[in-house]
Amino acid sequence: MSQKLYALLVGINEYHPESYKIGNLTGCVNDVNAMEQLLHNKGFGFSKTKTETLLNQQATRKGIIGAFKKHLIANAGPDTTTLFYFSGHGSRQIASEVFHKYSPLTDNEYIKEETLICYDSRARRNGKFLEKDLADKELAILIEQAARKGGQVVIILDSCNSGSGTRLTQDRPEVQQIPAQAKTIEDRADKSEALKRSYLGDYYKKMLKKTGQAIVPKSKHLLLAGCKSGWYSYERNHEGMQRGSFTYHLENTIKENPQLTYNQLFKLVYSRLQKYENIQKPEIESFKDFNPDTCFLTKKTGFEKRNRHLVRKVENGWQVETGFLRMPIEKTYTNIQWTIFNNLDAEKIIAVASTEHIHADYTQVNLQCGSLNSTQEYWAEVVGVLKGSQEVGLVAPTQTIGELEKELYSPLVKLVHQEARLHYQLKVSPKMYSISKRGKLLVRDKYDTSAIVSNLEKIATWETLLDKQNHQTTLNQSDYRLTLEIEKHGSQIIVDKESRIRAVTSKGIPIRHNNKKYQAAPYKVYAENLSGHSVYFTLLCLNPDYGIRVYEHLEINGSKKMLLFDQGLFTTLGQATTVSYLKLIVSTNRLVSTLFNQEPITGGRRISLTREETEIVAPSDDWLTKTVTLIVEK
Known about the structure:
Blueprint: E1 4-11, H1 28-41, E2 48-55, H2 61-73, E3 80-87, E4 90-94, E5 112-116, E6 124-125, E7 128-129, E8 134-135, H3 136-147, E9 152-158, H4 191-195, H5 203-211, E10 221-225, E11 235-238, E12 241-244, H6 245-256, H7 262-276, E13 283-287, E14 308-314, E15 317-320, E16 337-341, E17 351-358, E18 363-369, E19 378-382, E20 390-395, H8 401-407, E21 413-417, E22 424-428, E23 432-437, E24 440-446, H9 449-467, E25 480-486, E26 491-494, E27 498-504, E28 511-513, E29 516-518, E30 523-529, E31 535-542, E32 548-556, E33 560-568, E34 577-587, E35 605-606, E36 616-617, E37 623-624, E38 627-633
Parallel strand pairs: 1-2, 1-3, 3-9, 9-10, 20-21, 20-22, 27-38
Antiparallel strand pairs: 4-5, 5-8, 6-7, 10-13, 11-12, 14-15, 14-19, 15-18, 16-17, 16-19, 17-18, 22-23, 23-24, 24-35, 25-26, 25-30, 28-29, 30-33, 31-32, 31-34, 34-38, 36-37
């Protein structure tokens, strides 16, 4: 079956002449023209590439929604990739009252949602707006309608407040005023109208009436955004032409290598934006089982070299984009050497570096030999096997052991021949391989070197993140409170450094915690900062299939309580018993949280365990952890 691409590209420089408090832009149409040329000229291997553009006055609210339905939804299917691209102003507005039951804010605050400003959605006549912005919750409805037909759905937003453009969001902290070339407009202030707002034919009001709740669809898709929620996207002169900085670097990175995976593409674009824009922070999010380790726009799957990490020049030297949280080492261990390459696939070593200091999510290095261009990105690989690497028993014919150790090398994994006592076992035959844990099969498939290394590294990364603790922390555990609220019981469980919660499905005995019993039910996760100063909270979910998901990453001011996750469910996933972990990281510095995302292990036959946990990080090098273990039985 040949793959087809349908793309809707929207760019708005000139807004409606009656627009209220909104300025025109100059680079958005250039962005659309560049993206359209890229899609047609780079040869992604599609049998058909069909693009539709909406520019300036064409990009009304009705025009965008109509084109999304007619061009993207109507053509979506198992053999298609549908792409929605938007370059223009973004903002926020008060969400409808149907969502306020999910808001953790105080009585005098309102939950807000991110919006795309259409050509006519800020035009005012006789004191009234002619149209509404396109809200994130409406975009989520359109995406769901395309995603349910199969195929890939990709969203690229180059506008302010775009980092959560496809999901339910909460109000974010205020940030500093920025120059006029930022693509942002003040929030709409029509509070009474906003609270009664409807979305695409009263979609959520009908859902609320039918089910008693309003839930934003979280369908399978991937979002690439020019900035995080509550932050800013910029446009400026690039090579003599006004462009959106995010789109400019995205386009040029793809031109250099159109076969990059989404994750690889994001890492490079993020690096370039930090070099040239510094305060602009792009975002990548994959929803449901969308695999960001597939190549951009195509469904081609390759196994990313996970043991290579981006290297870039920063103000105080060279920096490798991996850190203590993802490395199986003690915090004080710095005896790590790095070999540096021109690109991901290069075999020739061009430089060698030593470790100066390891931070939570990056490592400072010093060049030992070789020379690097400060304006270029490189890729680094650890020399040898890291101290504390994941040990895996290797079962294979004796005569092949030496060859396999070289072929399956990874700095994160130490293969030990015929070691049955180890939790993880890798069995290799000439045509097949399997990975098991404590005798339970995790994956079995045809022998493939890249697949084996990728799966082993995912397991090692998952276990490393799960087990991380900081024994030198100066932070006070009691200052950072994590609370599980179990619905239908009115119960709140405040997590100590470690807590274990036992639950069962409806046919078994209730949940138990500190001798209290709860029937299995949905739960919410709240975080509270009692320290008196601002910190960042990152909530991760470590899934049983070794996937890792970032559920939330936000700044919480002193004495502020925020909802981190509101759709938790106790479930056995078909297993007799499952163990899940949520991990909360609390940090004084903002982490590149999206780089924690990890796809599940892959293979012809895959068996789920079940895990989730909760941990915490603080200053750049000071952090602590809290762990919730959810044990669920039938």
